[in-house]
Amino acid sequence: MKHLIAPSLLSADFMHLQEEVEMINNSDADWLHLDIMDGVFVPNISFGFPVLEALKPICKKPMDVHLMIVEPQKFVREIAAIGAYMMNVHYEASTHLHRTVAAIKETGMKAAVTLNPHTPVCLLEDIIQDVDMVLLMSVNPGFGGQRFIEHTVEKTVRLKEMITRKGLNTLIEIDGGVNMETGKRLLDAGADVLVAGSFVFKSPDPLQTIRDLKEL
């Protein structure tokens, strides 16, 4: 499978949100990544359901919704209602992760589990077979534009080894500090999906930047 590119709306110009989404619609991007933050699980607040509802009729790309919040299981139906393709919940925020994953899949959405930089991939041994994707944070969650954590490359290799050993097709997504150089190394390590925020939206030509990432 050719790798996927999921630009992160967190880095978009919110004064011109419709134009930014239309740019993504017309790009080579595969998904649109949406970071929902509550100011509790992470030290920042982003946007919530009113913005997601506004995106629903104009976004033509599958929505990859990443909940950086406490008790994400409370909002499974709301995320499904806005037409999300993938719902990401954090391992660290999900006391009953298996139950939450099952609830996500019951709605027809794909289920993903996210790991913070300090959380080892070995903790996924008993859930990896139930999820469609694992998102590895390559920065500390909460803010865009951070420096890439180098250890993520080795972590990606170990996660890929686990997936291969179990004979699974689970996708590996990486979020944080992705550019042409880190993106190439992550893909070589086994990543399937690259999330890019500032690198795309702050570039002089976002359409070309997405195309370049897609061609890595």
UniProtKB/TrEMBL annotation:
The pathway noted for it is: Carbohydrate degradation
Instruction: Keyword check for Magnesium, yes or no.
Output: no
Q: Which GO terms describe its molecular function?
A: D-ribulose-phosphate 3-epimerase activity; metal ion binding
Q: Which residues bind a divalent metal cation?
A: H33, D35, H66, D175
Q: Which PROSITE patterns does this UniProt record tie to the protein?
A: RIBUL_P_3_EPIMER_1
The record's comment on cofactor binding reads: Binds 1 divalent metal cation per subunit.
Enzymatic reactions: D-ribulose 5-phosphate = D-xylulose 5-phosphate
Please list the cofactors this protein needs. Answer: a divalent metal cation; Mn(2+); Fe(2+); Zn(2+)
Leader sequence range is: none
A Pfam family found in this protein is Ribul_P_3_epim
- The record lists substrate as bound by S8, H66, G142, F143, G144, G145, D175, G176, G177, G197, S198
Respond yes or no to whether keyword Nucleus is given for this record: no
Q: Catalytic residues?
A: D35 (proton acceptor), D175 (proton donor)
Q: EC number(s) of the enzyme?
A: 5.1.3.1
Q: What class of enzyme is it?
A: isomerase
Q: Which domain of life is it from?
A: Bacteria
Give UniProt keywords alphabetically.
Carbohydrate metabolism, Cobalt, Isomerase, Manganese, Metal-binding, Zinc
One GO biological-process annotation of the entry reads:
pentose-phosphate shunt
> What job does this protein perform?
Catalyzes the reversible epimerization of D-ribulose 5-phosphate to D-xylulose 5-phosphate.
Family the entry assigns: Belongs to the ribulose-phosphate 3-epimerase family.
The name on file for this protein is Ribulose-phosphate 3-epimerase
Q: What is the lineage of its organism?
A: Bacteria, Pseudomonadati, Bacteroidota, Bacteroidia, Bacteroidales
Gene (UniProt): rpe
